[in-house]
Amino acid sequence: MALVPFDDRDGFVWWNGSLVAWRDAKLHVLTHGLHYASAVFEGERAYGGKVFRLREHSQRLIDSARILGFELPYTVEQIDAATNEVVAANGQPDCYIRPIAWRGSEMMGVSAQQSKINVAIASWAWGSYFQDKEKGIRMTWAKWSRPAPNTAPTASKAAGLYMICTMSKHEAEKNGYADAVMLDWRGQLAEATGANIFLAIDGVLHTPKPDCFLDGITRRSVIAMAKSRQIQVVERAIWPDELARAQEVFLTGTAAEITPVGEIGEYKFTPGAITKALLDDFGRATRGEVDFPIQ
Ligand code: PMP
């Protein structure tokens, strides 16, 4: 199937305050965000025209920028409204949404104190992130580790943090796997290249403490769903060999939604009752039939 490049599509992009024609949403090559990764972004999904957890995503965009040392020139309410505006304008009630904020072209060096902060939001129809995910995806180990919190802004959804994710994902795909599990700098389980990870061990859910990677909004939603079903959830340091004790493993993320995992390296899992129950809850939550308030 021929790729339709992302810069050559119909529709609208919200760009610094107003909607522009999709193909006109262009940057100059001398943009600080491109050279120095001074950019933060979000990934969201709308279901039936309603953006799932919109406020949390808009707030995280603002918080990610603050961690990198810049302030967005919009309030959280304005970003929510802009997101709804672009989703409506593009006419796809089920879509993926990509807000991004970046330092512009005013300064071109490590120091960029006077650079203008830009914000754009695009949306497009997008189905499942993983193919055949129902039976459980095949994963391998990444050779890159998540950096320690004193070596990178790990709580931010910063563009620069994705460099090792793309490298890890490409290596996995080259070897026939859908994705890779990344360890952290201590050698403990961290997450996938764009999603968090959960293990079901004897009826209890275990997930790594998000102290050096993104505390996903889907992750927090799934914890709330599990608790409402009286499923115990333990956030803790998890060593990779503990996968031997897990009966079920799944990933959570806006793109991945809830994705069952069939294997990680030598460890094998079978999606079971816990994964199925949470998939059911997630479907109802995203359709707006039920709300699971998150902490
Ligand atoms: N970790 C990484 C590296 C991600 O890119 C994502 C997707 N944003 C997640 C975790 C999951 O976050 P969320 O559930 O908020 O989409």
Number of E strands? 16
Strand content: 25-35%
What share of residues is helical? 10-25%
Give the end-to-end Cα distance, rounded to a whole number of Å: 42 Å
Name the shape in a single word: globular
Spell out the helices and strands N to C: EEHEEEHHEEEHEEEEHEEEEH
Per CATH, the superfamily of the largest domain is: D-amino Acid Aminotransferase, subunit A, domain 2
User: What does the radius of gyration come to?
Assistant: 19 Å
Q: Provide the low-confidence segments as ranges.
A: none
CATH architecture of the largest domain: Alpha-Beta Barrel
Content-based structural category: alpha+beta
What is CATH's topology name of the largest domain? D-amino Acid Aminotransferase, Chain A, domain 2
Biggest sheet descriptor = 9 strands, mixed
Give the helix tally: 6
**Count of spatially separate domains:** 2
Which CATH class of the largest domain is shown? Alpha Beta
Q: What is the average per-residue confidence, as pLDDT, rounded to a whole number? A: 97
Bound molecules: 4'-deoxy-4'-aminopyridoxal-5'-phosphate
